[in-house]
Amino acid sequence: MNKKICINGESWCRNLTGIERLAIEVTKHLDEMTKPGEIELILPKNAKNIPHLNNIKTIILPVNAQHMILWTQIHFQKYVIKNKAISLNFSNTCPYFVPGIEFIHDIYCKLFKKDFTSRRDKKIVLYSTLMYRRIAKKAKEVITVSEYTKKTIIDSYHTKPEKISVVYSGLSQEYKNLEPDFSIFEKFPVLKEKPFYFTLGSLSKRKNLLWILKHAELYPNEFFVVSGKALNNVIPQELEELKNLKNILLAGYLKDEEVKAIYTKAKAFIFPTYFEGFGLPPLEALSMNCPIIISDSTCLPEIYGKCAHYINPNDPSINLDEVLKQKTESPKELLEKFTLKNTAERLYKIIEKYLRGNL
Fold first, then answer.
1. Long-range contacts for 236-241 (Cβ within 8 Å, ≥24 apart)?
2. What is the mean pLDDT of residues 320-343?
């Protein structure tokens, strides 16, 4: 008997980050591959930018998703059970009683619990680790975005390797189509006056602002631009110290168009993170012909190979000018391999066996 796949539409209610981009664009690509009646997109009524899909049926439930846990565990789960469907979740979650085809991008909350200190953060860790374990133990298929993350799941939960598929993440076509907004250089004239390094991220602890801080202190003649939105689990004093350094510009949240413009002028994109499941920002930088200097840790060497300059995320004393002298390869093949269209094609091959009733 053929099964129906139901996509959890929570990504259409969240702020747009890497996971949401993946969910939204991969769904559009799946729409081009699937047949009518095979896949449904289940959305709450407060979903934003509801897509026009030809083959995937859009179902809007008469509830708002203000609290994503309640949306997934009550409303979405109830729909999946009632329709005897298989859930597809893109964002490290699953309906607890009927886990289906589920993404785990990384298991950061399990491996770095010490990064989460507030009461709210500890609740996030509790729910996230519950979801990791449930998916790893009970999902029909576990989907992840790098061999590194696959290994951490196997090591942590003893999941059978054949149950985990790596589809890799990738660059969004919508991102590629955006035009750079060069007005950012009028907003920050200093960027026209001196060479600078650029870093971008959520400003969470794992993005390793401490490396930028310590390096900037050691090299006062270098200039750094830091962009991103602060999260609750950022070390406040670290941000305050960054504000006090004259060779660091905290640019705040920037639009993608502004970021693309900055890539065209930056000496290099700096990514000193100490933990990633895939690591998308360096790929975006490479797409704009901006050199990347990234950590030699976790999944990053697997993804970027010889197309990157590497640093130790625990050693801020390194000379970046010397690092940039390292030879790198053209990222052309990398940019062709890691696209969200390819992600969707890999994913569809996995879910097709359920659509055809082979399992």
1. 238/209, 238/210, 238/213, 239/203, 239/209, 241/213
2. 96
